[in-house]
Amino acid sequence: MKYFIYILITFVLSFEAHTPYPKEYEKQINKEIRKLFGKNEIVKKQLDVPDSLMFGDNNSLYYLQSNDSIMGFMAIRKVNACLVGGCSKPNPLNEGRYDHFYYIIFFDTNHSIQKVKILDYQSDYGYEICSRNWLKQFIGYKGCEVSYGNEIDAISGATVSGYAIVTDVQEICELIEKINNLDFSGVP
Prior knowledge:
This protein is of the alpha+beta class. It is 28% helix and 21% strand.
């Protein structure tokens, strides 16, 4: 019996690991889509990005469609922040000691950032990045010209988390720019 329970738990955990993001965020995600697009019927469809353009295993990229037109893009990301002690330099002692958070980012069809929102922040440190006022700094940027401490203000008490989200926004901006040349005319 114990062996059966162990197999069942292993199966459930392995299945859960392959979902692009925790399903409990679905309600928050849909709420943000309604805020941005009003009462329009918006369908989110996962973007089939060629493996050659992908980076890491943290790629939940979607296009948002209303009727037959693309309204924008959305990415749901898991970002590693750090426990106290810092993680700006790779350190084998810190391996696996990352706290992480999930955030969502929306782009319009011109690849300008429309909104950034933290979906879940569980660490005891760096939670200041969850402030709506701080996150508003990203709105309107196109491409990857954002940098921590310059275009995006550094924030006291959240240096590692602030740097982590800005770096990740730069990476997803680069991916959005790379898919610019993909053909979406045949999108169902």
